[in-house]
Amino acid sequence: MAAVIRSVRRSSAALVLIASSVLAQADAGVASTPTGPLPPPTAALAQVTDFGRNPTGLQMHLYVPKRVQRHPAVVVALHYCTGSGPAMFAGTSYASLADRYGFVVVYPSAPRAGHCFDVSSPAALTHDGTSDPVGIVSMVRYVERRHHADPRRVFATGISSGAMMTNVLLGDYPDVFRAGSAMSGVPFGCFATTDGSGWNSACANGKITRTPEAWGDLVRAAYPGYRGPRPAMQLWHGTADDILYYPNFGEEVKQWTNVLRTGLRPTRTDHPRPTWTHTVYTDRSGRVAVDAYSVAGGTHNVAFDEPGLARIAVEFFGLTGHRGQG
């Protein structure tokens, strides 16, 4: 665990330092949604205890906007190493987007040393295991009960460690999550260890490569026997990421295009901004199943350095009134 703290601290410290300014400048320049700075959140962040099964002692914070839909969607916003749910609330625009579109945001916190989510242990990489994913799903179930949230519209998004957990949640719980958006992450199972360590250097350094089918098999093995629909995935990665190296982006694309049976040839490719290469992979029904953004020169902080990613994620989830992934 000490290794992960040292390796991610450079990135996470930068995230914390710029967090106070991100809310004012984020989300500009997205053509299909209202542009310009979002106002600060209008409601308070609340801590929730006793929300259900929680084997690793995660903490839960919840944002419910003053004007919420009758059966709101749920967005789970997952922090980076050294971060927390309140840091994600303060440093990203999901709460302000919730004010605008009437969904609820869950902010989990990993209180263990280093404040990284468990994406490595066998218990984390299985449906109904005994690690962090179970507690996060308990948070979702709490919101569904308490706030009458729509179980058909539950989404996950995260940065770094939170991006890795987004991959894990979509693999472990395809019956819970409709879609995810992972910003600077790695494929499901890439960080797996069996020695109790939470850090996998080979994966972090982009040294683990597999065939699409082998990556897909890791996801399918997390929930043996599951035959239902699989959640769509949006992926973001900077080519200059020196924490979770850029080759992980290609491996994520291989994994999720296999899981979602789209094939590796994109349906379309475009460049929404000069440094962005956007590839879209649709399934047989025409749904956008994998939505991938490569950012030339982008660092591990791409979620903060590139304005608008939170809004694009929420649009991909279909929560802004536009088509999105569904």
UniProtKB/TrEMBL annotation:
Question: What is a single Pfam family found in this protein's UniProt entry?
Answer: Esterase_PHB
GO terms for cellular component: extracellular region
Organism, as annotated = Planosporangium flavigriseum
Xref: InterPro entries: AB_hydrolase_fold, Esterase_phb, Plant_Biomass_Hydrol_Est
Q: Where is the signal peptide?
A: 1-26
**Protein name (record):** Esterase
Q: Provide a Gene Ontology MF annotation, just one.
A: hydrolase activity
Q: Name the NCBIfam families for this protein.
A: esterase_phb (TIGR01840)
Q: Which domain of life is it from?
A: Bacteria
